[in-house]
């Protein structure tokens, strides 16, 4: 049969709503629950829903990296205690698809157990070895007058004062991902939405967006680039850097260490993957320029606009509660 179940066969609200996303609205009676107003679900639909809800919905963010906690296949019986909100729905899915749900044991590199990342966290000479490898392996990019990016400021006292869009004075530096007490940073992005995310804006903020361009060629290390590697994921430099920039504030000390080292090698800045790229469909880089590039004449402001948030959209999925 083409549609063995429908959305009304489920008790769980998250599964019902996912049925609306993947299923077919039809007035035909469901052959399982006999209701005629549900979204009809094929086996292919149910497989997609199960993957979205149980696999993607059980994703766990570890200190570095992360992995789904639950997987399913046709070879194993269910050994996960899902609790009361799924006690009727899981058996229905098991019977319809002939599958079982189980705890997934990921390869440990997915949880950040990578040799290069562990070396960066160490206090000995092995960290500097990896820093030199970062300089060697990641490409150098030159940006010039043909390039531009954006910088967002909120609640500035005088938005007509172009110095308000330069990096903060050194005495106020040290709270961001790459800046430190010894190195101030001008942060920006080619993507305006990423600027809004990075600045954690609210609808009551006064927001101002500057378009910036270099006045001369600037030497930038591109940490957002993919690099070719001959080793396994457990020794991957690319994954180590990628996980660092996806991590929370506990990663900042290592990121600052990278930033200071790159600066000491004569670079003008770094291109790096945005923390918020995970909520975008494409990989979006940010740019960090060392020092005070507007004051130093390396960057000029081409335009400043007031910007206002008038709509926010969210994409989301659902996931299971698991009895611990």
TrEMBL record:
Residue stretches making up the RES domain: 158-293
InterPro entries in the record: RES_dom
A Pfam match: RES
Entry protein name: RES domain-containing protein
